[in-house]
């Protein structure tokens, strides 16, 4: 068992708005003895995690959604501590994709806290897209456009449905073009590129069924078409867990180094949050992350 007083919890009360604000007191009561740190603005979780790593805190818990997790991970990785603190998760967000990937009971906060106190740890890869680290997923093109279009007010009102509404609007617009090169290989053309350090992408969807977060490789899905028909075909392939590498509409790859270029800047998302624009390079971070999973 890990003693509660060895654990610091960084909680984002803005995640899922009112619901997560109400969760603060539940977390406080549940995690008695732990240090509870509330964020006030974007970037706070990153700074707090970096400071905790510098102070030698052994376990840092990200309490929030995937965006909070991403900030905490960034802070842990950029610290100068010889070994970053172990990461734990209390999923309070809309999607909680990373928590799903780790097999956590995302609807049972008490069970997640018990797991933090007594669960095993493992090491996983972290990746870098431009200037931004990520642990679960990144995307250039369609999904980044959806996130860019989805306002906080829409997420507050509609929850996960807000992304579906934005997706319908993006699919109705002309697609941008991009190209990528994997491990310094030939350039490949497409409209959207998705990158997975694990199986799940955008929710409980096994877009990368063969991906492993500790194999040193990033899994890539390069989409060549656009529009409702292409997306429905892709969705059908995901639901049936098809991994055919020779489909007309997609190309599946793995690699350690990816370069993305485009005629015009194309947005990138990392762990569900907006990152840099193209051109950018995706590479494995030089530090690994220990997580309670």
Secondary structure blueprint with pairings:
Layout: E1 7-11, H1 18-30, E2 35-38, H2 44-55, E3 59-64, H3 66-78, E4 86-91, H4 97-101, H5 109-118, E5 121-124, E6 127-129, E7 132-134, E8 137-140, H6 142-149, H7 152-158, H8 161-171, E9 178-182, E10 187-190, E11 192-196, E12 218-223, H9 228-239, E13 250-255, E14 257-261, E15 267-270, E16 273-277, E17 280-284, E18 289-292
Parallel strand pairs: 1-2, 1-3, 3-4
Antiparallel strand pairs: 5-18, 6-7, 6-17, 8-11, 8-15, 9-10, 9-14, 11-12, 12-13, 14-17, 15-16
Helix pairs in contact: 2-3, 6-8
Key terms:
single chain, 293 residues, alpha+beta, Rossmann fold, Tumour Suppressor Smad4, 2 domains, six-stranded antiparallel β-sheet, 9 helices, 18 strands, 31% helix
Write up this protein.
The protein is built from nine helices and 18 strands. The chain has 293 residues and is α+β, with helices and mostly antiparallel strands. The strands form four sheets. It has a six-stranded antiparallel sheet with strand order 7-6-17-14-9-10. Strands 13-12-11-8-15-16 form a six-stranded antiparallel sheet. Helix 2 crosses helix 3 and helix 6 crosses helix 8 (161-171). The chain is globular, with a radius of gyration of 19 Å. The model has no long low-confidence stretch (mean pLDDT 89).
User: Strand order within the widest sheet?
Assistant: 7-6-17-14-9-10
Q: So how many helices?
A: 9
The Cα radius of gyration reads 19 Å
Percent helix range: 25-40%
The CATH topology assignment of the largest domain is Tumour Suppressor Smad4
Shape: globular
What is the CATH architecture descriptor of the largest domain?
Answer: Sandwich
Task: Calculate the mean pLDDT score and round it.
Answer: 89
Poorly predicted runs of 5 or more residues = none
Total strand segments: 18
The helix-strand sequence is EHEHEHEHHEEEEHHHEEEEHEEEEEE
Largest sheet: 6 strands, antiparallel
